[in-house]
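new request in #modeling-help
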Amino acid sequence: MPAIKRVVLDVLKPHQPNALEFVSAIAERHSGCLIRITVIEVDEKTETTQLDIQSDDVPYAAIVDSIKTLGASVHSIDEVEVSSAAPSAG
Amino acid sequence: MIAQLRFLLQLTQAQRIARRYFVTNGFDGALTMMGLTIGFYSAETRVPVQVVISACLGAAVALAVSGLASAYVSESAERAKELRELEQAVVGDLQDTAHGRAARLVPLLIATVNGLAPLLIALFIMTPLWLEQAGVVLPLGGLEGAIGLAFVVLFLLGVFLGTVSGSFWLWSAARTLVVAVFTAAIIFLLNA
């Protein structure tokens, strides 16, 4: 089963929670993830952000669920790194 | 549960609103009690303490219910409007998100603060009246004690406001005391 090592998402979020609270809330729910957020654009009520998530195996579906719970939505998957298990010897 | 509640309060900046409501309606409660007790004090005939307590209690309950209902109705409407605007901005349904939960929960919390503030402050100001009714001997009479306590509470609300705003607490407290003295003077003048 291939493991998702890294995924970069384009996320539209409301101003609140702010970027720090937003990634902290996601990180609290998914231990073992390194999450980086970059605010790309700020509009009147929303922010377009890029979320870079790294882990031994990124729990993608659960993270998207957390993002939605915080009032944000995933617009696109911009980058993905997947690692497949090495074939067993013999 | 508490962490979740704190997160929702942070999300909606509701702490500031609750604090504002606490001071506003707490001030209402203190000033109303002061007005009532000064009204009884300046009346020509001395009214039994039981009557004063009943009148003050009635006013306190009315202020609490009014605060509860008015804050809930207005905050619910405000939160529903904000949520609708946010839903339009993110082009999605936010009912099952933290924002949706906050829109339902925060009006309840703010209404509770708005209702309890005048009630608790009024009950505190009425303490000398309860004590007099219970037969406790006070250095001042029950009415005089309640009036004094109302001034103290108004002074403390001023101190609290000064601390919140970061201005000189004594100046802020002096302003609330001026309002109290002005109100008392009007009542005395009208009863003269």
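bot summary: The interface with chain A takes residues 7, 10-13, 85-86, 89-92, 94, 96-99 of chain B (CB under 8 Å).
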